[in-house]
Each structure stands twice: as C-alpha cells, then as structure tokens.
Amino acid sequence: MKILAVIPAYNEEECLADTVNELTSVCPDIDYLVINDGSKDSTGEICDRMHFNHVDLPVNCGLTSGFKCGCKYAYRNGYDAVVQFDSDGQHMPQYIGPMAKAMRAQKADIVIASRGLAGGGAVGARGVGAKLITKLIKAGTGQTITDPTSGMRMYDRRMIETYAKSFDLAPEPDSIALLMRGGAKVVEVPAQMRERQGGTSYLRFFSSISYMARTCLSLLLFLWFR
Q: Could you tell me the pTM of the whole model?
C-alpha cells in the first residue's frame, strides 16, 4: 500500500521535529506531509530548516481544512491510504503497520486506532463524553466504536476522494458515523497513545466539554435529520 501520513500542525514547535523524525525512523516506507496551519511560532521555520515535506497554509484554518488539504494531495498523487497523525507526539507510528494490515485483511474503508481495545481511553469529562458518543453512534448505526474520539485514523482511497471533494465533512466522530450510515466499513485495532509531548492542547476542561457537547448534537443532526 502507498500510504501518506497527514500531520496537521499549528504552533507545534516543541514537538514537530521529534514527531516527524520518529515517524520516518519507525516507518521509513511511509510518506508524510506536514500541514503547517498558519502557525505563529517557528513551526514553519522548522519545516524549512529540516527540509520536511510540508504545505504552508497562509492563515490558521483548523484541523478539518488541514486534513482535507492532505487528502487533496493524496488523491492527486495516487495514494492508497491516508493516516491522520497528530504532530504533538501522542500517536505512535508503530501502529500504522497493523492499521494497514487490518484495512487490507478486512477490506475496511476506515481503521481507527483504539485506546479502548488496548485497555485505555479518555478519562474525566472527555471519558464521559466519549462513552455518550459511542452510545449515539451505536443507536444511529448499529455498530460500536470503542474509541470514537481517537485522532489516529486510516482512510482508504475511496474515503480519501470523499474528503478531498467534500465541503462539509470533518475527521470527527459525527462524520465517521455518517459515512458508516452510507456503507463505509469501519474497524478498530488496539493502540496505546502518549500524553502530548510538549506545547499546549486547545482542549482544556471547558473546551473539552464544549467539544463533546457539539459532537453529540452534531451526531443527532447528522444521523437523524440530515
């Protein structure tokens, strides 16, 4: 499989170099593309200095636009799969191989790296929200996703084209559920994830609650009213 790791990065000067170096060391056969999402720190300078494969967006457009930018690149360059890979060091590249193997063996459209299957998962308010999202997805699709908020997902060629050409899909649980309703096959593989290796997450306590609430509402709208 010809796989592209799409790495959206916004103000990740503390983590980006280590993330890319680990990825290329562990998975030398995997291509990658850093999407510098209008960073205000030295993220862009690091990409230039270290000759990382990257695209510089002129302003901060958000995760969805960054990911879709990567999908457009993958679609135009004939990649078989895209893996969404965080720039903050939380995702571990050794799971990319098992994800690709599961995609081939089970003919899956989307493969999710699941902390739940590995005995972990989100905790606190995010954990409660994740369980509610799992129940909503189950109610709307009849399928159980053990780690709906996992940000490490692999998409096949058909899904790459869908994201590259759509204007209203995000790499989020509500869109995954909508794609499942449309016939996409989603499987999970067990995976562990680390804490952020530097910098500051935009998902603090109150923003986490807001994110979970928006996702649950969006699931209701996508699955029953769209």
A: 0.89
